[in-house]
Amino acid sequence: MKILHSGLPIFMRDTDSTLSFEQGLICDGSSSKTVGQMEGLIRNPEHVNMEERMYEAYRNIRFPEHEDLLKRYDIRYDITAISPGTINGEFKKTSGHYHGYIADGSHPYPEVYEVIKGEIIFILQKSHNFDRDEEPVIDDLKAVHVKEGEAVIIPPYYGHGSINPSNGVSMFSNLAVISCPLHYEPIRKRKGLAVYALKDKDSFQLVPNENYKHLPSVKLCRPVENPALGITFHSPCYNNFITRPEQYDFLLHPDSYLDTIEHMTQEVH
């Protein structure tokens, strides 16, 4: 099965749902994470199969002729495939993390996430003290429901993780700054992100994580396009970047774009 919305010659094997890369496309490698490796992040870890796969990550995917361009902008293109199913009623998900600060200390790095198969709920929680050993102050909390062919920008200061609420494998790609530090421990200390997504008949229910204090209400949102920043739905981000890399200047220099990228989601009422 070809992963059409990647815009690349990427195929999912029917036998084990892993990816193959063709026509000279390079992937540096992959790693998988099991339920057991998500210890401390699952809402209810009782009586679970520790060997069950949660997700598979594929790193630094590119054509050889684009390698110099990607390196020049310090950008990497990855894909994460989240398995379907639930763990004691909680949809399978990634670990979640915050991005560290740019070298000049101005702001943490942003990132682009694009759903290339299925659908993903991205949990975004804004905290300016995520890197301190103290109770996190969550200023904003969103669950952004992104469907196949759509993309969303993760603004600075937003811890984030991804959840698969569908009945099949869901995949998302990212355009990320290679030198961006990643902080997983603030999420692990609180046993996950600020909300969990539980199966609720044919939909999902968002339940607060009781390990956080004074949480704002979670806002269910949908992503918003912004062609000026390379976010055009159903137009693959890899191809957009290769064609017009200057549109992604916000990934390295977010100062001038903060207000814009924070408003690239729209609350669903």
Query: What class would the helix/strand composition place it in?
Result: mainly beta
CATH-assigned fold name? Jelly Rolls
- The overall strand count is 19
CATH level-two architecture: Sandwich
Shape field: globular
Order of SSEs: EEEEHEEEEEEEEEEEHEEEHHE
Domain module tally? 1
Can you walk me through this structure?
This protein is mainly beta and 269 residues long. The protein has a single domain, classed as Jelly Rolls, CATH 2.60.120. Helix content is 9%, strand content 38%. It has helices at residues 67-72, 185-189, 237-243, 258-262; strands at 10-12, 19-21, 26-34, 53-62, 75-82, 86-87, 90-91, 98-99, 111-117, 119-126, 140-147, 151-154, 158-163, 170-177, 182-183, 195-200, 203-208, 219-223, 265-267. The chain is globular, with a radius of gyration of 18 Å. The mean pLDDT is 97.
